Amino acid sequence: MTNPDMIYETIILGSGPAGLTAAIYAARSRCCPLLIHGIQPGGQLTTTTAVDNFPGFPEGVDGPDLMDKMRRQAERFGTQFIQGEVTRIDFKERPFRLWMGDEIYRCLSLIIATGASPKLLDLGNEEALYGRGVSVCATCDGFFYRDREVIVVGGGDTAMEEAVFLTRFASKVTVVHRRNSLRATPVLAERALTNKAISFKWDSVVTEILADASGVTGIRMKNIRTAEESEIPCDGVFIAIGHQPNTELFAGQLEMDDDGYLLTRNGTETNIPGVFAAGDVQDNQFRQAVTAAGTGCMAAIQAERFLDDLPYDPNLSCQKGVCRTKV
Ligand code: NAP
């Protein structure tokens, strides 16, 4: 049960590289952060195996392992973690108020690091078929498709990475892409295009995922140049068509671009003083673990400077001994 008198200096929403880096910095600066995360802590990196481009790991690092290390580092400096879903936020006055079920949490500064979620094709049955042939994460589910035939939808880096990864298990991998050239960076595109186990259906969109009671049986697709329709039998459909920022909670209160990404200025400031945004929730361009971590660091430093200018309050979480560095 939360202490209704207590005010957190900083609450952080999200536990990916942005949220956890913000937590490490905020806790070390005595901002006594509370980090709120969902059911699957760790963000998108927990659905990745080898992360080869995070500095400091010359041999690469396992995604979940990297997130676990970041979490332990944040804990060491006194970050409090709770799991739950924030369903409402009021930014009209400070302390800001956040509702989780019946509980209200109050804070003077908020760092939003809620990330982004995989986009779906909006075909009606995708979510119902999760776990029965539809997946948004080859590294999580690829293992279940040993000697099976799979489709990967998309032409970006994620789709190419997933297609290559799936050739370890599947007997056949077909990429369905809506254009006749890939968006993926040359190195990943080349890796997929030269992989003999992968075939490509260009200029094609999936119009239906076919399924029976046991799960996915195939897809129906349409060539957008010729309007020709065809079906491909398959056991799995991996959707890799990009991401959507998790910003619904802030609609009407924080400024966003047309795609729903939070708009930031001067680093990580949003349009509300004391509210900062870091990581994929505000980054439509780079979306890397290291850039997310970088903006998480910036958000914590900016939150600290913001707090420095506020009057002393005896109800602050650090005054109440919430923040304890483990030595
Ligand atoms: P992305 O770059 O936005 O690519 C999405 C792909 O899906 C595009 O090919 C797009 O087609 C297609 N698409 C989008 N909506 C679609 C729809 N409704 N129906 C059919 N196709 C659709 O997303 P991403 O591949 O997830 O990559 C996101 C970011 O993460 C990028 O910056 C990427 O570089 C980075 N990333 C890096 C690595 C790495 O370095 N190892 C790995 C994964 C991701 P169009 O091409 O026609 O737009």
CA gyration radius, whole angstroms:
22 Å
Number of helices: 6
Instruction: Please identify the oligomeric state.
Output: single chain
What is the CATH C level class of the largest domain, in words? Answer: Alpha Beta
Ends distance: 27 Å
Structural class by helix and strand composition: alpha/beta
Mean pLDDT: 93
Q: Unreliable segments (pLDDT under 50, ≥5 consecutive)? A: none
Which architecture of the largest domain per CATH? 3-Layer(bba) Sandwich
CATH topology description of the largest domain: FAD/NAD(P)-binding domain
Name every ligand kind in the structure. NADP nicotinamide-adenine-dinucleotide phosphate
Helical content (DSSP H or I, runs of 4+)? 10-25%
Molecular shape: elongated
Topology readout:
Elements: E1 8-13, H1 17-28, E2 33-37, E3 50-51, E4 61-62, H2 63-76, E5 80-83, E6 88-90, E7 96-100, E8 103-112, E9 116-118, E10 134-135, H3 138-141, E11 149-153, H4 157-166, E12 172-176, H5 186-193, E13 198-201, E14 204-212, E15 215-223, E16 229-233, E17 236-239, E18 243-245, E19 275-277, H6 289-308
Parallel strand pairs: 1-2, 1-8, 2-5, 8-19, 10-17, 11-12, 11-17, 12-13
Antiparallel strand pairs: 3-4, 6-7, 7-8, 9-18, 14-15, 15-16
Helix pairs in contact: 1-2, 1-6, 4-5
Bound molecules: NADP nicotinamide-adenine-dinucleotide phosphate.
